[in-house]
Design goal:
The complex is a heterodimer of chains A (87) and B (357). Chain A is built from four helices and no strands. Chain A has 87 residues and is mostly helical. Chain B has 357 residues and is of the alpha+beta class. Chain B has 13 helices and nine strands. In chain B, a hairpin with a 2-residue loop joins strand 8 and strand 9. Classes of the chains: A mainly alpha (87), B alpha+beta (357). The interface between A and B is medium-sized, with 28 and 31 residues.
């Protein structure tokens, strides 16, 4: 798995979240981008700032935690490697 | 129905800059908190006070006055107050009241401009009822501020099968509306149910509504103008203007009333008049609450650890990752244990990592 931007949308689908669900979670984490921009970032059509990218990653990872899984979505500082808290 | 978000705020001093972050609704009930926050901000003797209003959903005339008074006091000592990230309805309020320059309201970025639309749209519904009520409150505040003869303005709408006041610029007009609902008569009821304007320029000689009029005069009201809110020709409700003086509501006020009634009607139509998406309201309201808590915790971490906003956010996310606990839970723990006495400490990390273990 790489940190290619389009993988964010795959992660969203994998996490069973709608675009709207993800936007609400991202917004709760302090995100300011409107939903269309978030969608564009998830599809790799736009590049997010690092803090915004981390909000999206964290919104997805918290969902994966709820599903009993680890944190597969990398953060900006992870330089492309998925974060595995058990490692 | 979703209650308005409580008002909260914080003050951060960093050298010559003070950042005041406000969230929720600003009205007279938030006076003690807002006064304390602005006092703390000006007492820091910084040259620039930035008021971040990104999470403010409503600001009434009292709140505007308070901001202007603070800006004036700062200017006298060579300082400057500037408003940052105000959502669209607030920027519109600053524009209409001519305060954009006095308050140095920063222009919106495209993203911020569209954010408030997004909040309202929230994917499915054009506007939720909470947003509708906030928009109507804005209409009554604007209406009162431009109508010279008006001592109060309210909006009446049917809710749960009865007419109710959903926005009022002060308690007297709220009481006036209730007097009409109690007696079952009055210009506001007639305008809202019959879809025609009902004006009474001098209550002293008014013969309609015999039970209501004495109550109105007992409260010091001498003239009333009720203008219907209309969808095509169907009445939706009424915009009511009250004055303590007879003949105070002239043709100028009539024109404004018609214009504001049209604006309120448009707001209503944008919500499909009766909004049923209560669950959506709850969802957005709880996201806003989470956001406030996280912002507060972020502010605490910034102050205690001397970190930038982004670094503080990373710090909180990092703890959440390491503990596999939601970042909101981490922030709630941090905020609930914060007290004015707690000093800058490097132990937040340790504490949060070990808590509940």
């Amino acid at each position: 798995m790489t940190s290619r931007p389009e993988s964010l949308d795959r992660a969203r689908q994998d996490a069973g979240l709608s675009q709207h669900d993800l936007w609400v979670r991202y917004f709760a984490l302090g995100g300011m981008a409107p939903s269309l921009e978030l969608e564009a970032v998830c599809h790799g059509a736009m590049v997010a700032t690092d803090p915004d990218r981390d909000r999206i990653a964290h919104a997805l990872n918290e969902r994966f935690t709820e599903l009993g899984r680890n944190h597969p979505v990398p953060y900006s500082e992870d330089s492309g490697e998925p974060h595995d808290p058990t490692s | 129905m979703t209650r308005a978000l409580e008002f909260i705020g914080s003050v951060r001093v960093s050298g010559d800059l003070v950042v005041v972050t406000l969230a929720g609704e600003i009205d007279v009930s938030s006076a003690p908190s807002l006064n304390a926050l602005l006092h703390e901000a000006t007492a820091a003797n910084a040259r620039t006070v930035v008021v971040d209003m990104a999470l403010v959903s409503f600001c009434d005339a009292w709140g505007l006055g308070k901001l202007v008074a603070t800006a004036n006091a700062l200017r006298e000592t060579g300082g400057l107050l500037s408003i940052r990230a105000a959502p669209y309805p607030l920027r519109r309020l600053f524009q209409i009241t001519g305060l954009t320059e006095a308050l140095h309201v920063e222009a919106a970025t495209t993203a911020e401009g569209r954010l408030s639309v997004d909040l309202a749209a929230a994917a499915r519904q054009p506007l939720t009822r909470a947003v509708l009520d906030a928009a109507l409150k804005l209409v009554v505040v604007m209406a009162q501020s431009v109508m010279a003869g008006a001592d109060g303005v309210s909006v009446t709408l049917p809710r749960q099968g009865r007419l109710r006041t959903v926005a009022a610029s002060n308690d007297v007009v709220l009481q006036m509306d209730h007097d009409q609902y109690d007696t079952g008569q009055g210009p506001c009821l007639d305008a809202a149910t019959r879809g025609e304007p009902f004006d009474s320029p001098a209550l002293e000689s008014e013969r309609r509504w015999p039970q209501f009029v004495p109550r109105a005069r007992a409260r010091g009201i001498e003239s009333i103008m009720s203008t219907p809110l209309l969808s095509a020709d169907r009445p939706l409700g009424a915009l009511n203007v009250y004055s303590r003086a007879p003949e105070a509501l002239a043709s100028h006020e009539h024109q404004w009333a018609v214009q504001f009634a049209r604006e309120a009607s448009n707001v209503m139509l944008a919500t499909d008049a009766i909004v049923t998406a209560d669950s959506l309201d709850t969802e957005i309201a709880s996201a806003l609450h989470a956001r406030e808590t996280i912002a507060l915790a972020q502010g605490l971490v910034m102050a205690r650890q001397q970190l930038s906003a982004d670094a503080a956010h990373r710090f909180l996310i990092d703890i959440s990752r390491r503990t596999s606990r939601p970042v909101l839970e981490i922030c709630q723990a941090l905020v609930s244990t914060a007290s004015p006495q707690s000093s800058g400490t490097a132990s937040d990390h340790q504490y949060l990592m070990e808590r509940d273990r």
